[in-house]
Design brief:
It is a single chain. Helix 4 packs antiparallel against helix 5 and helix 6 (199-209) packs parallel to helix 7. Strand 4 and strand 5 form a beta hairpin. This protein has 2 domains: 3-64 and 107-321, Rossmann fold, CATH 3.40.50.410; 69-104, no CATH class. The chain is of the alpha/beta class. The strands form 3 sheets. Strands 5-4-3-6-7-10 form a 6-stranded mixed beta sheet, sandwiched between helices. It has 9 helices and 10 strands.
Length: 327
């Protein structure tokens, strides 16, 4: 692929040094790069107890329920047992106190849905949105596996969707990161124009994989999201915990006041005069409307939202959002 064309398209300055295999890690990820987040990912957690500063805490944010409980047995009450565990109906019938004993479920499946469409192949400062999304997904995936939970995913571009059913251990992690890497590396500045993949179709697939008691994390810029998207997310959230990672670029709220900005879909280009107030307002309103839509889902459905920007390094952002100390 023409990597120089990709950098030109983004408006990014040349990298100080490419990865050992020649990839510019601000434009595309590599498998070793994504595998490298393993140790640092331990600084975050998706278990029920969250730090006070975590974005998963707060009035309008969902409480992560965590693993459920499996009923194991009824047995006689023993000194020191929690009186809240007494089964009063059985106790009344038996004439002696009985308690219900539960075991914590061994794991909770996590489904990571990652957007790698052409709308994500854009960035103006540090990374493309597609790279920031891939790094976010990798950080989450490492933490899921290290917690002993099952990992599954849906990675989608404009022409393909890869579905991975939740699995355990290193093999599930490697498979997910490999699929994610391949989807990311297929993005290119000179790609032929195709009809964008509909996010609603992807969410329908997610609902089939995550029937209930899953943690579902959707990482996207939510391009072309609409009222149907809200309905799909609401249906998934009825029986699962849902976290949205909204990936944005600084152009979402900051544009130069003079000069021109060039936009492209990979084939055609358009120059936008930033000195024209109506042009600036139009460009900014698109991003603002999308952000407001996602924030409205947070309010209506109590979904957790993690705002991630291409402007800064991904890992410190995720750790900070989750209330942890900077790595």
């Amino acid at each position: 692929m023409n990597r120089r064309a990709s950098i030109s398209r983004m408006g990014l300055a040349p990298a100080a040094a490419p990865s050992p295999d020649g990839w510019d890690l601000r434009v595309h990820v590599t498998l070793p790069h994504l595998q490298g987040f393993r140790a640092a990912a331990r600084a975050i957690s998706f278990l029920p107890r969250q730090p006070a500063r975590s974005a998963l805490q707060g009035r309008h944010r969902a409480r992560i329920r965590g693993r459920g409980l499996d009923f194991e047995e009824l047995r006689n009450y023993l000194p020191g047992d929690d009186v809240r565990a007494i089964d009063w109906k059985v106790t009344a019938r038996a004439g002696a106190p009985y308690v219900r004993v539960y075991n914590e479920e061994r794991d909770r499946p996590t489904l990571i849905v990652v957007d790698q469409r052409m709308s994500m192949f854009f960035g103006t400062v540090r990374n493309t949105k597609s790279v920031t999304a891939a790094e976010t997904a990798a950080i989450v995936a490492h933490r899921v596996i290290s917690q002993g939970d099952r990992l599954g995913g849906i990675v989608f571009g404009d022409q393909c969707v890869e579905e991975l059913r939740p699995g355990r251990g290193a093999s599930a992690l490697t498979r997910f990161l490999s699929v994610l890497t391949h989807a990311n590396q297929r993005l290119r500045a000179d790609a032929a124009k195709v009809r964008p993949m509909a996010m609603n179709a992807v969410l329908r697939a997610a609902a089939k994989l995550a029937t209930r008691d899953h943690l579902v994390i959707v990482i996207s810029d939510f391009d072309a999201a609409d009222a149907e998207t809200e309905r799909h997310l609401g249906a998934i959230a009825q029986h699962n915990d849902v976290v949205l990672a909204l990936v944005t670029d600084p152009t979402a709220d900051k544009l130069p006041e003079q000069g021109a900005v060039t936009g492209t879909d990979g084939q055609q280009q358009a120059r936008l005069d930033m000195a024209a107030a109506d042009v600036r307002a139009g460009v900014l309103s698109v991003a603002a409307d999308r952000t407001e839509l996602v924030e409205s889902w947070q309010r209506k459905m109590k979904l957790s939202v993690l705002p991630v920007t291409t402007e800064h390094e991904t890992l410190p952002q995720i750790v900070s959002l989750m209330g942890g100390a900077r790595p």
